[in-house]
């Protein structure tokens, strides 16, 4: 039964001239004063989600975006601030871009945030999809295999640090601890200080292409999945594949269990009115994300994601997104009815996340 609701804010500022006919994405450049507006918006959303009973406000980590689309560089740091301004809402990391971090620094910062917030920070990991981000931090993004290999080793280190009193690691990219003398003895293991107090640490990862390798990695390490703004037919296949992967690693899950299902959404009195209101922001979102190959509104999109290919911003329409249920547009009663359908179809599904397209004004989000 669906009983948990959350929302996602990826950190966009209020953009002018949204839509395919508006300002080209690569021509947007905002001054620092405008880019810092994301923190005020995050505070407003934290207060709203806290008051409305949402379980989690998810935030996204990104870097160097003078275009104003995704402007939060450090989720654990912001999460500590938001938790101290609110009463109960959790702050989720959707996602910490692990290849931009030293894995032990990410583990330390996340453990500290866990302690300072009383367990209200939800840990999430991602590989990244912006070459400007990951490559600038000195790690591979354009070489997809190298990126995945590094990410998997980094996550394994983080999980060891969280789960074990002391640990060592010998891998392709990291030797931990280094084989050096320390205070008269040779290091054999290290301890993360502090470790999270709230254990076991719940870990989430996006399901982006649904590859067998990624699902097996998640299942092997007990990582939960997030499927967001994805065509209905693809969702069903990925939920089945995730369930099967978990089963191969000894976890018997109901279909939909341990997965968050996310949607872009716009509510209005009729579906037509909702589509009309959402269209410029849908187009702005596609305009920015399609060249990165990150739309999943159709089977063709998913094939492009898996192949790491750019997509056309005009190859997706909001009407098709509504038809394939990657977008929910319409009156509340219609959306509730569809969620009831999902409950019947996926008996293990408990958690639904809603999100806004890039550029959606704060007044519409609230």
Task: Fill in the keyword field for this structure.
single chain, 366 residues, alpha/beta, eight-stranded parallel beta barrel, two-stranded antiparallel ribbon, 16% strand
Structure description:
The protein is of the alpha/beta class and 366 residues long. The chain contains 13 helices and 14 strands. It has an 8-stranded parallel beta barrel, surrounded by 5 helices. Strand 6 (169-170) and strand 7 (175-176) form a beta hairpin. Helix 2 (37-52) crosses helix 3 (75-85) and helix 7 packs across helix 8 (232-248). It is globular and about 70 Å long. The mean pLDDT is 96.
Sheet of most strands: 8 strands, parallel, barrel
Distance between the termini: 26 Å
Identify low-pLDDT runs: none
What percentage of residues falls in helices of 4 or more residues?
A: 40-55%
**Rg calc:** 20 Å
Q: Secondary-structure element order, as H and E?
A: EHHEHEEHEHHEEEEEHEHEHHHEHEH
By secondary-structure content and strand pairing, the structural class works out as alpha/beta
What is the helix tally? 13
Globular, elongated, flat, extended or rod-shaped: what is the shape? globular
Extended strand count: 14
Q: What percent of residues are in strands? A: 15-25%
Mean pLDDT, nearest integer? 96
Strand order of the largest sheet: 1-2-3-5-10-11-12-14
Topology:
Elements (H helix, E strand, L loop, with lengths): L3 E6 L22 H4 L1 H16 L3 E4 L15 H11 L4 E4 L2 E2 L5 H14 L4 E6 L4 H6 L7 H20 L5 E2 L4 E2 L4 E2 L2 E2 L16 E4 L5 H10 L2 E5 L3 H17 L10 E9 L3 H19 L9 H8 L11 H6 L3 E4 L1 H14 L5 E5 L6 H4 L1
Helix pairs in contact: 2-3, 3-4, 4-6, 7-8
